[in-house]
Amino acid sequence: MEAPARLRNVGHFIAGRDAGDDASRFGDIYDPARGQVQARVTFADEATVDAAVRAAADVFPKWSRTPLGKRTEVLFAFRERVRAHADELARIVSNEHGKIVTDAAGEIARALEVIDFACGLPQLLKGELSENVSTNVDTYSLRQPVGVCVGITPFNFPMMVPIWMLAPALAAGNTFVLKPSERDPSASLLIAKLLQESGLPDGALNVVHGDKVAVDALLAHPRVNAVSFVGSTPIARYIYETAAKNGKRVQALGGAKNHLVVMPDADLDAAADALVSSAYGSAGQRCMAISASVTVGDCAKPLLQRVLERIDKLKVGAGHDAGNDMGPVVTPAARDRILSYIDSGVKEGAALLADGRTLRVSGYEDGFFIGPTLFDNATPAMSIYRDEIFGPVLVNVRAGSLDDALAIVNANPYGNGTSIFTRSGGAARLFQSEVQAGMVGINVPIPVPVGYYSFGGWKSSLFGDLHVYGPDAFRFYTRGKVVTSRWHESNAGVNLGFPTHK
Q1: pLDDT at 4
Q2: pTM for this one?
């Protein structure tokens, strides 16, 4: 199908130039608040993907040999440009994703943390040296870039997650091809142009848009060396298996069902604030959103009453309207899927305490809005508990003890993040030790690590060994090399024996 002339077209960015005007396939970019298509995004074919990868491969020798100080200058300049364009980036994200502008601004602030950390690349890329491991022999290690890296990123953080990947990858001396979500792709193009203005060589970062055709071409391309992904678990598994089969280094972050355990001794007002903020922020479209609460003992009724009181005060509307707390979901398909889960929860017998299906926003009647939804008395067998809904739906499961709550959390196939609210140091310490998740909060509802730690889950929330950003990113985007060196020594003669370090 052809892109209508009346719609803005979002193209690719390859070798420092806009590309994709001659594409034959397009996808819709919605205005989620109005429920209308506002633009079209060009979909890459195999030839376009090949051009992007080759551009990255061609400039890799130059960028990887660029002195550390110069690479640091580029990252620092990029950091300042992102700061200067923060308001513009937030508006772009809100316009295509639907999240509140202030929420989008928070996404940019967290991205800046990762850029800040990447600016420390001279320290992060240092190796080790052991002198005189044998007579006049030294051994030392190097960290070297892997080559062309690929990032395949989700719609829910169209600015933050790409920077989680590309900032450390570029800092380490790699070049990069970004395939952002086709649902909200425009922020990625501004990111690329800001890096170009900051001194990054043309071709070191390329942006291609598309669907499975583009993804598969990237996973199979012989000049791609590493692949990073964030998205749903089924796709993460596919990315991991396909890329690994093609000989690539892979980190693939999957889905989540994040639990917040509330103990009877917890500050219930603080717990209710945390649940509402973490479950309904960004309409629940966060990989670290709390989508399941586990109430221990007799705290369920007083806690959920407090949650309902806070839900009643939430203002749902367009992301760009001041004063709103929650925006729409991203597409009509997302809205319909979430509504079907609410229907299923009712049929399965959970108690529906707050029903978001009937919400209508004045002036935005066609928007993809769903109100905050709350279920009680859910069980692990129900689809509303079992599946990642990725919408403003919170389900509560009741447990008799902390041991029971831990058993519920640990039996879930996901292990991205989890939290506990309690006044007991003993309970908190037991929880952090025994819970099976990669990120843990204690009286913190969304335990996303700061930029100098790493982000990642356990179980079906991660395929691969290393997490994104922080120290793990520099391990993922570099390869180790160990050198054993001897200098200024006379010929010792032939010796067929195994070296003994003497």
Answers
A1: 45
A2: 0.94
